[in-house]
Amino acid sequence: METGMITAATTTASTTPSTSSTAKNTLNQDSFLQLLVAQLKNQDPTSSSAMDPNQMVQQLTSFSSLEQATQTNSLLQGLLEKNQALFQAQAVSMVGKTVKVDGSGFSLKGGQASMGLNLSAAADVTLTVTDANGNIVTTLPEGNLGKGDQTLTWNGTDASGNQLPDGDYKVTVTAKSLSGAAVPYTTSLIRKIDSMAFNTDGSISLYSNGQAFSLANVIQVLS
Q1: DSSP per-residue letters across 28-42
Q2: Which of 111, 117, 149, 222 is deepest in the core (most CB within 10 A)?
Q3: Distance CA 186, CA 174 (A)
């Protein structure tokens, strides 16, 4: 008899972890309602420990709030999906458009390149152009430029006057006032959108001559 009892106890203990491993770790609205019903069924109305009517009302109110929050989340998710689809449909119309994009650099093609510069105040501006390997190919003294938007151009020649191959070149801007203090500025690029891609995270990538940039970086649609 003792051996049988030990065996039964051992079997029960071995199956307990399996049962507990499948237990829910979260309390959803169905679980909440089940607990509330079980509490009402198992209490003695004549007992002093019975549920206070005020507490019951509070629990029912909590359940109602939970149900409403769940429905609201479902509605918001549906609206988000519809808005995203509408936004993507509108974004497609940007293919073929010329836009101003936040960024810097010269994209040389056919001996022509340009970059936008916006100065917070008048400044003496110098551009340092480097290739993909970080080598300085030329320095362009732009001279004194006024406050506001400027368009900087480059014909693609190096410091010795040699024509450089098409490609992307990095530009470092130095802008100083008459007193030698640094003048704040922003730079921008002019790009024609060839195509776009919708990313899994909801963002949109635009492509121009093989270069990718985010729709979030578009400052202005020019044409």
Answers
A1: -HHHHHHHHHHHHHT
A2: 117
A3: 11
pLDDT classification of 29: cutoffs 50, 70, 90: low
Strand partners, 124: 144, 176
Tell me the domain boundaries of the chain. 98-221
What top-level class would CATH report for the domain 98-221? mainly beta
What tokens were used for 103?
């960024």
Residues 6+ apart with CB under 8 A from 201: none
* pLDDT on residue 194: 87
Rg (Cα) of the chain, in Å, rounded?
34
SS3 content of the chain, % helix, strand, coil (to 5): 35, 35, 30
* Digit-coded pLDDT (tens) for 85-107: 665 667 777 788 888 888 889 98
With a CB cutoff of 8 Å and minimum separation 6, the contacts of 151 are: 114, 115, 116, 117
Alpha helices in the chain (DSSP H): 2-21, 29-41, 53-92
Q: Which two tokens stand for residue 217?
A: 């970086």
**DSSP string covering 193-214:** --EEEE-TTS-EEEEETTEEEE
8-state DSSP, 43: S
Exposed/middle/buried for 215, CB within 10 Å: 0-12, 13-18, 19+? middle
For residues 186 and 173, what is the distance between their CA atoms, to the nearest angstrom? 10
